[in-house]
Amino acid sequence: MKFIMVDIGSTFIKAGLFDVGLKKQIEKTKYPTPPRKANHDSSYYENDAMEVVGIVKGIIHDCCRKHPDTTGILFSTQQHGCVVCHPELEGDTYISWQDTRCLKRRESSGYSYIEELKARFSREMMEPNGVYIKPALALCNLYTLFEEQGLSRKCETHVHTLGSYIIEKLTGNGICHITNAAPMGFANILDNTWRTDMLEQAGLGFIKLPAITSHMECCGYYQEGDVRLGVFPDVGDVQTSVYGTDAVTGDLIINIGTSGQLIYITDRYVPGNYEIRPFYENNYCNVISCMPGGRNFDVQIDYIRDIGRQIFGSSLNREEIWNRLHHMEPWHDTQGLEVDCGFYELPDRLADGSIRHINHDNLKLKNVMWATALDFGRKYREFADYLSGQEARKKTIYFTGGAILKNRKLQEAIQQELEIQEIVCAADDEVFRGMQKLVLKCAERMDWDETGNQRGAGSNRCIPVGNRGSEPTASDAGIRA
User: Could you tell me which residues belong to the region Disordered (predicted)?
Assistant: First the structure.
């Protein structure tokens, strides 16, 4: 039995094939994520959702052609965004977590859309959601979409997580996992329900949403030609990456990919000035998001590339520039230069980065890069102190995410600023390792029928999401994988 694992990120869609019997990943490939739609307004960050589905179907058919014993598929996806299906839009539109339209102000009132939502929904009201009002939330950008563009609220409108949209297109069933439902901003993580009260207050009570599940059950089958494949829920990429590290309660994770997160694993639901995301095995992830990530460094890299284009008539791509940076003489000096790497919004403020204390001699590339890395460290130290202060943390710190695992200089800067000696660098592509652990649970679920009896190996039945009987559901103790 083999399972396809698909990780849908902002830059790449990565696919792996996992042999359940051997407990080994046997193939891996990646495709560029469909490009951002062109728009004169830089605050919009949209993708054509059907283009993503097309890539996924291509992955399925390619794997099934080469490996006829491929049985199922599991998704890990970027979070917070949503797919909007509305007849007045040009196709089904994925509004990314990188979309910031909600920061725009109404001419009539002078208030931004996000300020309007903050006035409606207090932090206390949103505690059961595990997240608070912030630019990345689907709630904020959905509200802005309908207010700003005046879309009809009388047309049938479906809103999905990116993963549940793919699942519906493959199986006809609209189902999403709680790890992806929660970051949309209007799901109750204590009872796995949508906050219809909030949607009504935001003028969004008319939208239709997928069902929520907290289990690794089969959502239905994708069938086309001789392909028949069990489709399993969409899990959040951050939690799944953490799951792949084997971190346990009390551990702290510094996850730096396109964006960055600080994550603390706990078995207690204790609201604070952080997000609480449902995790696996009866735990929660306390998360501080909008931390500096690869995109913050890319601001510097793209400046270098622009100099290449404008002055020398050619430019290297980002990867080539990073390769050369890593082979430069050591970065370990700033000569007094300081960088504020907040080129994107941070947990405590909007974007406002800078390079300071420039004199006639210190504005050099290596100084700028090391000062940027040190500022990453300062910002992670500040918020790590807050997160770990909630409980007596005495365990391990893990580095995860491609942007830090590939950047030894950044690791050194953060380690220096946090004043810690022992750090575990997770294996590259730890999201796949987390998915492998979940696939084993999915495979077990394919061996049981609706009545709880183990079935024969030749059967293709799966557990309907709406018919779980007395099976345990998420509670204030967390969720089961």
Answer: 453-481
Confidence of residue 53 (pLDDT cuts 50, 70, 90): very high
Secondary structure of residue 18 in the 3-state scheme: strand
Question: Is the pLDDT reported for residue 335 higher than 80?
Answer: yes
Residue spans of beta strands (DSSP E) within 116-239: 158-160, 175-177, 187-188, 193-194, 211-213, 220-224, 227-236
Residue type, 8: I
CB burial readout 261-292, b (16+ within 10 A) else e:
bbbbbbeebeeeebbbbbbbeebbbbbbbbbb
Whats the size of the chain, residue-wise?
481
With H, G, I as helix, E, B as strand and everything else as coil, classify residue 445: helix
- Asked if 372 and 353 touch (Cβ cutoff 8 Å), the reply is no
pLDDT tens by residue, 215-225: 999 999 999 99
How many other C-beta atoms can be found within 10 angstroms of the C-beta atom of residue 427?
12
User: Can you spell out the DSSP letters for 313-331?
Assistant: S----HHHHHHHHHTSSP-
CA distance 151 to 146: 5
| Dihedral of alpha carbons 166, 172, 178, 181, sign | positive
Neighbouring-strand partners of residue 231:
73, 220
The identity of residue 209, as a single letter, is L
The reported pLDDT for the residue numbered 282 is 86
89 φ/ψ angles, rounded to the nearest 5 degrees: -95, 155
Number of CB atoms found within 10 A of residue 145's CB: 25
Task: Choose among 6, 3, 8, 9: nearest CA to 26.
Answer: 3
Give the HSE-up count for residue 243: Cα atoms under 13 Å, Cβ half-sphere: 27
User: Does the CA dihedral 267-268-273-279 come out positive or negative?
Assistant: positive
Tokens of 16: 């792996």
3 state DSSP class of 385: helix
User: Residue 335 forms beta bridges with which residues?
Assistant: none
Local structure of residue 182 (DSSP, 8 states):
G
Percent residues over pLDDT 70 in the chain: 91
Burial (CB count within 10 angstroms: exposed 0-12, middle 13-18, buried 19+), residue 90: exposed
pLDDT at 428: 67
Q: How far is residue 427's CA from residue 414's CA, in Å, rounded to a whole number?
A: 18
